[in-house]
């Protein structure tokens, strides 16, 4: 296929063309641009829909279409921060759009901005998330909203050694890489989101390069549309930044004090924050004395600028970090497994002051998460039998906050840790696996700590994962070129970053994988773009750190337990003969519900006579087996003879018949109205039947389809009084089974 990109020289010969069209109609100028990527064509159009928005575009790939609008207020937000609101209508994966466009808003632009991504059509072949990134880029570029774009985004897959650009959902099912990369002009990277199946570092790096190359074509197309539309960006009435004179005064007041705090390596997270806040309060009071009319945000921003400057210069100029480590050192790591005996698996992972407790719980395969219709249509995934639940309570950072629901951070971090572990989970494991990661302390990179702790907990639980997994976060401190601010003049890459290094740095670059390859990568960039060279260095530095972490983890537990714990789950098949199935299930499934409620087991039917019983512990299985034995114990039904006549006792009168027992220790069965008498009756009372009365019935075995016992009273009644012709023993009779009629022969 032409759109397959092979390794090597073929990449340089890639045929990419831009097709541009402008049409004037009664509603204005409609622009459309197409980017040909091999046999695929990405189309971006504007000027037809949602024209009241500051920017509105429609992006189409195949028959999947997304409309993206951008609107920004002209009055600043009173909260002095960038309140970017990003919403998807029927679209999962909005977070990658947010991360891709956020770094390119100008500093100090504090105006409410909303991006709406509306999925207009989905063809089940092409995913809409990449279209949404390109749509947001085009909508912002074609609007008058200040934004330093455009950017472009593509998805890269790897199938049988061949790289695919924007592959179909079917192709992605067999791809070992799912890489989304957003690029800026000059082949810079602004965002990476990737999952992989233990892919080699060199293959992963090549996939990033292929992706960045194709983003440049999309950027050219959007730039062409902007030139055609003669876009002019608005000039905000106010940019929220501190005056240079105030910053210089703050520098003189606080630089040495801040430097002293950041070079005191005895500090931990809490004491360092307290020390900086003490300097902050003193400095801000002095600033207010000199500038009594200064706005609060100017005073705060002045100190923030100086504090950030000192912190970054310490790394750039002295190659030192605030905790005393060199640029490539890890924090101290300790690991424990089998923390709590009743759990199926558990582990505690501590890296510096980041502490994560991971636990593993097994459940039946039937309990896997069933996805909604939209997610199924977009991803093809109908259920999940492995999941990771990430929790970040406020006490992890010495704060007070709400505990209800999951926020954006928990969703994003949990999804990344889950991506890191999913490739090593065995495909044929007999249980649904849930890993819970509870962040007990946080000072940076809790998502990667969750991947490490989750790997340890899975091995403690006896899950035969193919390899241990570790993750690490890489940071960046850079210096821009004074003549070309979009270019990086100098930089330092940091291994295993602290929370403050993430906050005051330029990049949060998370990588997780095995000793052999990469499973997941997420790059959040806070500057307008990273050169490819720097990205490759970050991947290499993260790979070295990942292997070092795996070595430490292996000292605690190097491979999965050979057997699951004694208190682990049990699955057994129970054979229930058709003749006893109705009794086993009970009326309306009552017995099954009672069994599951009392013992905690899950029961599902395998075939006509086999039920699968899942128990969370062996004790629960023993309890369930006793229950099942009691329900299905042998009784005198095995003594019944086909065609024999028995005396039955009426136990209950119903509208459709009577419930009778043949023996005291047998369950009551229904004798349908149609089998009470040769006459057609609407209620048993019509022929004088009462509870406790004994009647003669003939036994015809059990119905082969539903297992119900078949009895008849009418075959023993004389038909002369009703004018019905005599039935010979060889003639067919229709037997009532409660829900309908069943046919048998009399004896």
From TrEMBL:
It is a peripheral membrane protein. GO terms for molecular function: 3'-5'-RNA exonuclease activity; polyribonucleotide nucleotidyltransferase activity; RNA binding. Homotrimer; in free form. Homooligomer. Component of the mitochondrial degradosome (mtEXO) complex which is a heteropentamer containing 2 copies of SUPV3L1 and 3 copies of PNPT1. As part of the mitochondrial degradosome complex, interacts with GRSF1 in an RNA-dependent manner; the interaction enhances the activity of the complex. Interacts with TCL1A; the interaction has no effect on PNPT1 exonuclease activity. GO terms for cellular component: cytosol; mitochondrial intermembrane space; mitochondrial matrix. Coiled coil: none annotated. Residues 643-714 form the S1 motif domain. Its main location: cytoplasm. The lineage of its organism: Eukaryota, Metazoa, Chordata, Craniata, Vertebrata. This is Polyribonucleotide nucleotidyltransferase 1, mitochondrial.
